[in-house]
Prior knowledge:
By secondary structure, this protein is of the alpha/beta class. The chain has helices at 3-20, 30-39, 53-66, 85-93, 127-141; strands at residues 25-26, 44-49, 75-80, 104-109, 112-117. Strands 1-3-2-4-5 form a five-stranded mixed sheet, with helices on both faces.
Amino acid sequence: MNAYEEYMKEIAQPMRDELTNAGFEELTTPEEVDQFISENNEPVLVVVNSVCGCAAGLARPAAITSLEGPKKPNKLVTVFAGQDREATAKMREYFEGVEPSSPSMGLVKDGKLQHFIPREQIEGYEVEEIVNQLTEAYQKYC
């Protein structure tokens, strides 16, 4: 690992911890992604994490806050765009018909994308609006 990669890994660690401390399982390899998706047929919230400001100020807080309601996915996972590139690319294969976007959030059930929130519906929105989008998806699919 070169100095830049080491630096970025250190910078990103608190961003990873924010989700893992909230109960998200981090998938860092394509094999982990495939294994997780193949073994889970219940609703899964997938957060494609990133280092950008809208991930820090909007996506992560909204994902975590959305879990406070009574209806929510049984499983929570995250991949980190720009850090765990291969795992992120593999997860995006399960987001059929959706352009790559980070940060983003998807609700996956039986290996199929049920609901997707791209960066365009995160950046410039309020945390509450994103929480509402997630909560509505949980009501429908969980």
